[in-house]
Fold this protein.
Amino acid sequence: MAAFASHLPLTAPPRAQSRRTHDFNLTAAPNQVRLVPEPYGRTDAWCFNGTVPGPEIRVRQGDRLRITAKNGLAEETTVHWHGLRVPNDMDGVPHLTQRPIGPGETFTYEFDAIDAGTFWYHPHQRSFEQVGRGLYGPLIIEEPNPVRVDRDLTWVLDDWRLTKSAAISDDFGNMRDVSHNGRIGNSVTINGRMPKTFAVRKGERIRLRLINAANARIFALDFSSHEPRIIALDGQPTTPRSPKGGLVVLGPAMRADVILDFAGAPSSKTPVIDRFYKGREYRLVDLAYAAAPLRDRTPDWPIELPANPLPEPDLANAMSHDVIFNGGMMGGGVMRDMGGSMNSENGASLREMMHAGKIWFINGVAATGHIMEPMLTLARDRTHRITMTNATAWHHPIHLHGHSFRVISRNGQATKHREWQDTVLMAPREKVEIALVADNPGDWMFHCHILEHQAAGMMGVIRVET
Ligand code: C2O
Ligand code: CU
C-alpha cells in the first residue's frame, strides 16, 4: 500500500502564525517505580522514559509532533495516539498500519495536532499486558486561547493488581478476567502515586483533565460538595454541564475535562469517592484546603471551549450500519450459546472457541489479531450512522480509531448534548447510535477498550475508502 502517496492530509485548522514542529523521544523499557508508599518497596513496571505515567506531551493546537519511539522491551511494541485524528500510517497499530517496533528498534511518528484537548498514548501490541504494566502517558493539545483557570492539571488514573509485596500480579489475560469484566485491580493510582491528600485553596478554579488509563476499571467520581462541570469529553469540547448525579463516569480510555471551583472552608478536607461498583466504593483522595484562601469568591470567568474542526454529520443523508456485540459470561458462569449466530468456522463448538481465546464477538466474529477483513467499509466523506447493540451482560467502552463520532441516541432516546467521543461506554443490553463523517481514509481499529475483552476477540476493522 502506497501509504504516503495515497492519502491527502487532514485539514488542519487555519493558523496565522507559522506552525512549529516539536520533537519528543519516548523509550519503552522496564524500570522500578514507587506506586505504593513506604514501607512497601518499589514496583517493577514497564515505563515510558522511566516513569509511570510517561512524560506529559504538551503542544499547541496546529503544531506538529515528531515523536521517536524506542523499544527497550524484550518484545515488540507500537505507540497509538488515542483519540488523535492522525493519518492512518501514524496510528500505531501493529501489522495493520506499521511493522511492530522490535526490541532495540525505533520508529518515528509524525502528525499534526488538529484538535485541542486531552488525549493519551499507549502501545497497541499486547496492550492488556503492556498498558497493564504501566506503558501510557498523557498528551495534551492546548487551545490557542484556553479558558482561564488558576491551575490546569492532569490526573491519569490507573488501577493495578498488586501482590502483598507491591509487585504487579503477573496473571495477565487469565480466563476469568477475560470472560467477565476484565482485569480489575486492587490499587488505584493518580499519576502513578497513591496520595492521601490533594492540596487546594478556597476560591481556586482548576481545570482537571481526567484520563482513565486502567485496563478495565470504570470510574464514577464523586467530588462531594464540589460540583464538577464537564467542558470536554474525550478531548472534544461539550456544552458545559454538571454530570448526572454529580458523578464523572469514565470507562477505560475515556477522558473528561472538568472545571472545579473550590468553595470549601479553609483547612477543611473533603473526600473524592469512586462509586462505580456498588458496594465497592472507596476513597480515592482527600481534597485538603490550605489555611489561606486564594480569593473569597468563586470566579465567574467563562468556561466554554471553542469547537474543534470536526466535520458535522449530515444525518438526513446518512448511510446506516448495524453492529452487535456478543459473548462473555452471561451469569451462572455460562457463556451464552449464540444459536449459530457466531462465526463458528468449521463448526467449532463453543468450548473449542473459548479454548482458542475467542470469548467476545463483533457481528459474530472474534478477532485473533490486528489483521482482518473489514467488518464495515465506509464510503469516504459520507455521513455514517452506526447502531450498536450490546447483547452482553457487561459494560463495554467502544473505541474507534482515526475519528471522533457524535453519540446521537441511547436506547432510542436522542442524547441531549450529542457529545463527540472517541470511546463510548455501553451499559449491558444498551443500544447506542453514533454518527460520523468518514473523512480519514484507511483501515481503523474498532474495539472494546477493556483490554482483556479486546485481546479475546472484541475488535474489528472499519475501512474508510480511499
Ligand atoms: Cu486506546 Cu485501539 O486504543
Ligand atoms: Cu468489553
Remarks:
- The chain has three domains: 21-142, 151-289, 315-464.
